[in-house]
Amino acid sequence: MDLIVDSNIIFAALIRDSITAKLLFVDNLHLYAPEFLLEEVQKYHKYLAAKTHRSNEEFESIYNVIKKRVFFIPMDYITPFIEKADKISPDPDDSVYFAAALKMNISIWSNDKRLTKQNKVKIYTTQHLYELYKSQIE
Question: Which of 9, 24, 38, 135 lies 20 to 30 angstroms, CA to CA, from 60?
Fold first, then answer.
């Protein structure tokens, strides 16, 4: 399954070893994110590192693996879809994820309930994905 992954999913995986972190490494999930997500992680790097239940080495290691596991989409690739995404996204801050989903014709992985208040892009929560892939992470 191909999915656009939002920043909160990445943040959650960085903070603790959880179902979210395990799902990031399911072979059948092909994950994509707008490249600005890398800037978001850098922006909140100290905050995330302070909040984590991982050592500094583990935090950096998981971050490096995530950077290899997620394909980061150049912004110029999805910019033509921003206007349409602005009309769909219930939250203006999430328009870029919708633009990426529209460009690639795939769903979004997010736990933000507001994103389900539209019917153009399917939203999968961590719980949905866990139900689908639990045999691969347990």
Answer: 135
